[in-house]
Amino acid sequence: MRNILLDILGLLGFGLLNYGLYLRFGLADALICAGGLLLVMALFAARAAKRNPSPPDPKNPPKRP
User: Fold this and answer.
1) C-alpha span between 44 and 50 (Å, rounded)
2) In the structure, what pLDDT confidence band is assigned to residue 65 with cuts at 50, 70 and 90?
3) Which SS3 state, helix, strand or coil, does residue 28 take?
4) Which positions, given as ranges, span the membrane (predicted)?
């Protein structure tokens, strides 16, 4: 539940930041900033996933030779 709340707050903050840029500078600058922030977010998410691999699925244990 905590992760869902943090995800919603993160998306809300990103949306409000992008909307503020749109109001201040226009559509082109807002889209450029949004693309850059999404790229940075994706890089951090990939880095976090690499550091904390998901635990193995208990329903499908790895096969041993």
Assistant:
1) 10
2) low
3) helix
4) 5-22, 28-46
Q: How confident is the model at residue 18 (pLDDT cuts 50, 70, 90)?
A: confident
Residue 64 lies in a domain: no
Is residue 61 domain-resident? no
The answer to whether residues 21 and 30 touch, using CB atoms and an 8 Å cutoff, is: yes
DSSP string, 28-52: HHHHHHHHHHHHHHHHHHHHHHHHS
Residue 25 domain-assigned (yes or no): yes
- The residue segments making up the domain with residue 34 are 2-51
Task: Please tell me which residue, 52 or 11, carries the higher pLDDT value.
Answer: 11
State yes or no: pLDDT of 54 exceeds 80: no
The amino acid that residue 19 corresponds to is Y
Q: Which two tokens stand for residue 7?
A: 């995800």
